[in-house]
Amino acid sequence: MRTLTLLAILVLAAPPSGSAAQPPPSAPRATSDAPPVTYRITGTRFAVAQNVHVDRDEEVTDGVAVVGGSARIDGRVEDGILVVGGDLHLGPTADIRGDVVLVGGTLIRDQGARLSGGVSYVSFGDWSRRTGLFGWWPRIELGNTGRWLSLAATLFRVSILAILMLVVLLVARGPVARVGRAAAAEPVRAAIIGLAAEVLFLPVVLVFSIALGITIIGLPFVFLLVPVAILVALVALLLGFTALACRLGEWLEDRLGWRPRSAVPATALGMFLILMPTLLARLLGVAPEPLRLAAFGVLVAGAIAEFLIWTIGLGATLMTGFGRWNTTPPPIGAGA
User: Fold this and answer.
1) Does residue 182 sit in the same domain as residue 117?
2) Which of 79, 149, 198, 288 has the fewest CB neighbours in a 10 Å radius?
3) Hey, how many other C-beta atoms are within 10 angstroms of the C-beta on 144?
4) Structure pTM?
């Protein structure tokens, strides 16, 4: 009886037949060619006279701006891309969520690259593709050194201005829109205020400096008044110029039927229209002799156009308190 009891216990405790031969289910393997699911988050990418590379696992939360260099995008860019004097290469894993603006360069797009915005080209003609720091610069002839240096200086000024305008757009988009609306609504008034500010700036600073210098207590403030006044004037000029360039670019985009999602292409387009006579005059200055004769007239026209834009922009900036408030009422509806 004891032997049967032990045998019954052993039979009940034994596993079912064949259960030990079945291995436990294994988890599915991840394929090696699966795309990355995480990104390294970075902010706005700026570069001057050098190249920019956005890696495959990198996500730029703002925009990419390159002046005097090229850009290669293998990751994700949430806003637009601006490349001045270089090429843009979109790799097979690139994901661009905004618009692309190329000034004097070309776009290379690999198969698989995603671009949800538009592409705008601004070309100055043929460029000498040489390697080096300034490989995008035109080839300089020894007999025209002075004229080529003038062209180089103008391009350098335009490049610095483009960078500063992009910074203004990123940090003060609201004031730029308000200043642009005020300038478009009352251009004559803005021009008068801007011209008065330009004429009275130096006398006012001089009077305040003399008044502070008379007193011993105010004498140390004289050394702060001049640089602060110059800095405020430069900020006002830059804000006004950026606002008018953006407004002019948006106006032209409406006429052409474009619908970009970013203010960067509109500002770049407006800036090109404003500076086009000056750039054309510098290009004519290094052209053959028959075309060079028209350079002076075009340069004068460009200088007058720039002066008007700077003056109206300055006046609109002062009218709106550096873009802090609106000065024009909203448009009246059709049913009013």
Assistant:
1) no
2) 288
3) 15
4) 0.56
User: Which among 175, 161, 241, 236 has a CA at the least distance from the CA of 201?
Assistant: 236
Which tens digit of pLDDT belongs to each residue from 220-242? 777 788 889 999 999 999 999 99
Do residues 117 and 46 both lie within one domain?
yes
184 domain residue, yes or no: yes
How many whole angstroms from its chain centre is CA 220? 39
Unique residue bearing structure tokens 């030990």: 20
Residue 309 CB-density burial (10 A; 0-12 exposed, 13-18 middle, 19+ buried): buried
Average pLDDT over every residue of 176-194: 94
Q: Do 217 and 254 belong together in one domain? A: yes
Same-domain status, 71 and 104: yes
Question: Mean pLDDT throughout 117-124?
Answer: 73
Same domain, 293 and 159: yes
Q: Is residue 108 part of a domain?
A: yes
> Which position has the token pair 């007058």?
304
Asked if 160 and 243 sit in the same domain, the reply is yes
Domain extent at residue 86: 40-122
Q: Is residue 180 domain-shared with residue 108, that is, in the same domain?
A: no
